[in-house]
TrEMBL record:
InterPro entries documented for this protein: Beta-barrel_TonB, Beta-barrel_TonB_sf, Plug_dom, Plug_dom_sf, TonB-dep_rcpt-like
Domain TonB-dependent receptor-like beta-barrel: 337-861
Location of the TonB-dependent receptor plug domain: 55-171
Main location: membrane
Organism: Massilia violaceinigra
Transmembrane segments: none
The entry's keywords: Cell outer membrane, Membrane, Receptor, Signal, TonB box, Transmembrane, Transmembrane beta strand, Transport
Domain of life (superkingdom): Bacteria
Key word Signal present: yes
Bilayer disposition of the protein: Multi-pass membrane protein
Name of the molecule in the record: TonB-dependent receptor
Compartments where found: Cell outer membrane
Keyword Repeat included in the entry's annotation: no
Protein family (similarity comment): Belongs to the TonB-dependent receptor family.
Length: 898
């Protein structure tokens, strides 16, 4: 059919299609994909238009469920975390002291967890209730059973024109299996050759078809042991200055009081490691095993995940669907024991009426005194659930299809932490006798109360458990349609439209008893907020020539939050050109956005501390350079207070990519892609180091009143220069989120696959994926110098990653060698780069009978642990590498049914 003088704007097409149906627009359509002789159409991440090929204008990496097992990945998160495109450093469940030890996330292109959109079957999930690093919202990847994963598709680059907010760095779409026949029971157990950190897993997956009804279910139970630092020889003892476990100090002189034979009498504490330690100004009790005793490098975890789905053929052209996912996760870890400092809510010292001087008393309570190290574990009880309901099918009288549905995702997290009670000062110091003229507390303590051994009963009388309650939810109503609009000489124009309405909410509620004075803690506020969103989008695939097609998409999103309305229009354009049958040349350009994190907007008051801080002012006062200043890179760093801002604007992103796919046969293909992502108005907290630099410049120049200097100085609270204890030391840095000026990143992805089929030796398949970041530039304010973070030792992201696998299938055997090469990262001292490291996994699967398979996997075959003592204990690059070493897994699967 010839069409002349026909124009239709994308938004008009969307509105007509969604509101009136596509019938009038599709009168002259020819048969679409899925007709006899053509491949079946699938929806590929980054597009809502079904297509016959996974290749498109944007590069999409696919990981199958089988590959997750064969390449030695422990679970779905492990598979995603090790992908070459995931170059960002994240603090996950095994990082140690993190805000979210019961959650795991990824950071595509190193742009942060909040810039990667995570989808489950194309639908959004609720954010984890607690903000990542106390700042940004993110999606937890720890509760999705790997046994029901059909495949995972990873799209790098902006996709807001298809999915809306968050898809700036890319999209991860976890696609679940749709059907199963019979029941599979899978048992898996693992251990480590160095000891500790064992794993056990049970999975039961099955399904059945009943005429028009098709069902699927899976149950997964995971049980993982913790790994304590003292279970690894290189972490069992902390070298250098030992930890102060018991001391009494004269604040006026800085000298320590001699505690007599106390340290020897209590020498059996901390595993028999406590001793008297001498310094220039006296002696105190100390141990070099405190940190290894209390620190878990791998969390303890017990989780149960349940998934179910059902599809019912209401008619030959209409299907009803429902699916739900429920996960319960119990986590425990330990990062430090109970450490008491007198008057910690004040100046951390008091006036001793007996001695007539100001004193500082400290005590680190040992596991032997409190009934075992696990007595001070922190625990989390998390529950995550999601549900999707809807209908999909053909629109009568057309070849168009529609889908209408509801999806909801809900998350609760209860945190249980041991804290000192308000009576702890009086337990050690006796009754408070008042305060002096400076507000310093007065006591008349008996030193014997400090130096004697505690009993577990006494410890229980001065500590209690705080219980926080954090929740989040996300709900969406959606209506979509796709089909062919009209014919062009090169083929039909295909169109997809989407309309959405959604609501999100979160709440962080600390234990109310904190503000009632039960605990020896500062007050803690409730943080909560909600927002609504609405969207209308359209996407078109236009065949320009026989071997050239383009994809165009546009979407308008509107958010309502904090009494504000903000709308964003995003678009993208892609092109595919096949100059030869075996060669595809592709390119894309997209705009994207991210609505401000709700935590950034609604944060009431959050506290924490930086991993390290440089006090530029005190270094300048001392006339020292940063290289030889005792106040530089002090770890742990200064405390901070973070508040939210309701004036934040949405981030705006731009991305483009160019690439080629060469596939001369079904057994060989090579891809190369260049990617580039830019973000304007990036939302981030004020940089503490920049504030400290500016404060130093202003104080040295005696400029205390100019707007910039007044702001910097007012954000930093210090002890008085005449303070007896720690004069001029930073007490607190106050920060809040702002829209920073700019960030960009670019790089190259390469992949290749080669298969060799033989008569007697079976099939060999070699695969490789490589990603290299070329640059990552940023500046906080317009006018600042653009800095490449990849050149800085403070940037812990991977510069490059390489994954290579060789699979050999012969008869009933399937064997895989999988090697991962990690590029350079900075050492702990941030003075040089660590050399690249390669880890190798082996796996072998044997089909014992047509129903039973047995597999063995060995991760980190060479038992390599990356060592790094430049920053001291724990002597390995935390977060970049694992201290576990070699892991051995045995797995058995049995199929019941046909």
């Amino acid at each position: 059919m010839k069409i002349t003088n026909f124009t239709l704007t994308p938004l008009a097409a969307a509105a007509i299609t969604l509101l009136c149906g596509p019938g009038q627009l599709a009168q002259a359509q020819t048969a679409g994909a899925g007709a006899q002789g053509t491949p079946p159409s699938v929806v590929v991440t980054g597009s809502r238009i079904p297509r016959a090929s996974l290749e498109g204008p944007s590069a999409v990496v696919v990981i199958t469920g089988d590959e997750i097992t064969k390449q030695g990945y422990k679970n779905l998160f492990d598979a995603l975390n090790n992908q070459a495109q995931n170059s960002g450093f994240t603090t996950g469940a095994d990082f140690g002291n993190t805000h979210t030890p019961s959650a795991n996330t990824i950071s595509l292109r190193g742009l942060g967890p909040n810039h990667t959109l995570i989808l489950l079957n194309g639908r959004r999930l609720a954010d984890f209730p607690t903000a990542y690093e106390g700042a940004v919202n993110f999606t937890n990847l720890a509760n999705i059973p790997s046994s029901i994963v059909e495949r995972v598709e990873i799209l790098s680059g902006g996709a807001s024109a298809v999915y809306g907010s968050d898809a700036i760095a890319g999209v991860v779409n976890i696609i679940l299996k749709k059907q199963a026949d019979g029941v599979d029971v899978n048992l898996k157990a693992g251990t480590t050759s160095r000891g500790g950190g064992g794993d056990r897993r049970l999975q039961v997956t099955g399904g059945r078809s009943f005429d028009k009804l098709n069902t699927l279910f899976t149950l997964e139970v995971l049980d993982r042991d913790p790994l304590w630092s003292n279970q690894r020889d290189f972490m069992a003892v902390r070298q250098g200055t030992p930890t102060n476990t018991l001391s009494r100090k004269n604040v006026n002189t800085g000298n320590y009081y001699d505690l007599g034979d106390t340290c020897g009498a209590l020498g059996d504490l901390f595993g028999g490691s406590q001793f008297k330690h001498s310094v220039k100004k006296g002696t105190y009790c100390a141990s070099n095993k405190v940190s290894p005793t209390f620190w878990t490098t791998q969390t303890k975890n017990l989780s149960t995940n349940l998934f179910g789905s059902a599809n019912y053929a209401l008619s030959p052209t209409t299907e009803l669907f429902a699916e739900f996912l429920f996960g319960q996760n119990k986590t425990a870890n330990n990062t430090r024991g109970p450490n008491w400092t007198a008057a910690s809510l004040g100046d951390s010292y008091f006036f001793n009426k007996n001695s007539g001087v100001y004193e500082a008393w400290t005590k680190y309570i040992s596991p032997e005194e409190m009934g075992g190290v696990k007595r001070y574990n922190r625990t989390w009880d998390d529950q995550a659930s999601s549900v999707s309901l809807g209908a999909k099918g053909d629109i009568p009288g057309t070849s168009w299809r529609y889908e209408a549905g509801y999806s909801g995702s809900f998350y609760t997290s209860e945190n249980h932490v041991q804290r000192p009670l308000a009576n702890i000062d009086s337990f050690f110091l006796g009754p408070k006798l008042g305060v002096d003229a400076e507000g310093i507390a007065i006591y008349a303590p008996d030193q014997a109360r400090l130096t004697r051994r505690l009993t577990p009963e006494e410890f229980n009388s001065i500590t209690g458990q705080t219980n926080s309650d954090d929740t989040s939810r996300s709900q969406t109503l959606s209506l979509s349609a796709n089909g062919e609009l009209f014919d062009l000489p090169a083929g039909p124009v295909k169109l997809a439209t989407i309309a959405e309405a959604g609501h999100q909410r979160f709440a962080n509620k600390p234990d109310a008893r904190i503000n009632q004075g039960l605990f020896n803690l500062p007050n803690s506020d409730i943080t909560e907020g909600s927002r609504r969103r609405y969207a209308l989008g359209v996407e078109a695939n236009v065949p320009l020539l026989k071997d050239l097609s383009s994809t165009l998409a546009g979407r308008y999103d509107r958010y309502n939050y904090a009494g504000r309305n903000e709308g964003k229009l995003t678009y993208n354009a892609g092109a595919e050109w096949r100059p030869a049958k075996a060669l595809l040349v592709r390119g894309n350009y997209a705009t994207s956005f991210r609505a401000p994190d709700m935590n950034y907007i609604f944060k009431a008051r959050g506290t924490g501390y930086y991993s390290s801080t440089t006090d530029h002012y005190r270094c300048a006062q001392a006339g020292k350079s940063i290289d030889d200043c005792e106040f530089a890179d002090v770890s742990p760093g200064s405390n901070y207070v973070q508040t939210g801002s309701k004036d934040l604007r949405s981030e705006k992103g731009k991305s483009y990519g160019l690439g080629a796919v060469w596939s001369p046969s079904a057994d060989f293909d090579v891809t190369v892609d260049y990617w580039n992502i830019k973000i304007d108005d990036l939302v981030t907290n004020l940089d503490a180091d920049n504030l400290l630099r500016k404060e130093s410049e202003c104080r040295i120049a005696k400029d205390l009143t100019s707007p910039t200097c007044f702001d910097a100085i007012s954000r930093i609270t210090r002890n008085a220069p005449t303070a007896l204890n720690k004069p001029d030391e930073i007490r607190e840095i106050r920060v809040n989120p702002i829209n920073a000026a700019y960030q960009d990143a670019d790089g190259i992805d390469l992949s290749a696959r080669y298969a060799v089929r033989t008569q007697s030796w079976g099939k060999f398949t070699l695969k490789g994926n490589y990603s290299k970041s070329l640059s990552k530039n940023s500046r906080q304010f317009a006018g600042d110098v653009l800095v490449d973070e990849l050149d800085k030792f403070t940037n812990q992201d991977w510069r490059d990653k390489l994954n290579v696998s060789l699979n050999w299938n012969v008869g009933d055997w399937s064997n895989t060698v999988f090697a991962q090469r990690y590029g350079k990262v900075p050492n702990s001292a941030q003075t040089a780069f660590l050399s690249p490291t390669t880890l190798v996994n082996l796996s072998s699967v044997y089909k014992v009978t047509p129903r039973a398979t047995v597999s063995v996997a060995i991760n980190n075959v060479n038992n390599r642990i990356k060592r790094d003592s430049t920053g001291g204990w724990p002597n390995y690059p935390t977060g970049s590498y694992s201290p576990v070493g070699r892991q051995i897994w045995l797995e058995f699967n049995y199929h019941f049914g046909s």
